[in-house]
Amino acid sequence: MAYLVSRLLLLGAVVVAAVAGLVPTPAAAATPVTVTVRTTPQLAGVRFVFDGRSAVTGADGAVRFTGGHDRARHTLGVDDGGLSFADRRFSFARWAGQRDPDQAFRRTVGGLPLRRDYTVTAAFTARFRVTVRCVDQDGTAVPRERVPYVTVRADTGQTLRLPVERPVWLDGLLPVYRRSVLGSRAIVYSLQSAVAHGANTVDAGRQRFAPARVRQAVFTTPFHDLTVSARDAVFGSAAGRAARVTLPDGSVRQVPFGADRTATLRGLPHGQYRVEVTGGRGLRADRLVRLSRTQTVRVRVVSRADLALAGGTVLLFAAGLLLAGRRLRAGQGGAG
Fold this sequence. Notes:
By secondary structure, the protein is an alpha+beta fold.
């Protein structure tokens, strides 16, 4: 009988202990529990609402909600409506640490506990106002009419055509979830092309920028000068009156020779050009030029005088052959 009583007392103690673990004591209920909400990137002025109570993040990009220990289910929401500024805009993207993985991308999450301190992270995407500028190899600004657009590629795989000297909004920050940690990374763009007169003035992928770090993307787009002169192919004297140059896009520029008997075209992108000399007394001469630096091209022109000289030379040679043939035949006849 004594044994049975002792076993009942032991069972009662176990039940009491179990009940005590399920029902918080007044001391446990009074224990403050803090839920910290932090932002990535670190943002001040973001409003969060926890069970109807709102608070705004401070300079550290965090806000804290404190309540008594309980076993209720609580809600947390975000308001990003006031996160648009002159040169940047932020938008809520997702949560981490919100307990329910199915709610990671909802603006309001539920089922949050207040049993012990923990942290919830709110990640934001960001767009930045960026202006593209082009300069030549000497740092001089390139007029927009020469290079009106550039093409860039983001490291996310997106390709964009951007106007030069016109502000545009570009994605600059994306949330990154790695090893259970939610953070942000900057998007990097690489220059693919800056076309002028049908030729790409840059090497694709060599120039990069990140909108999160700079608000002005400055690209170097080299341009060169091409000087043309023309000389008679035989006599070496100056020839022609103008240089007619066909650009990579098919457009044509004609520049007259100056007092120094040269014509210079300035501000050309590297590429292939057809150079012709016009206005001479003879055949039009042309030459293909691969322009990769500032350079001078001399075109050899075959003039009418050259043709007359060549024709006379041929006639004299033919006459000489004919005369030599006659003398040879005459000598053979005398010997007979």
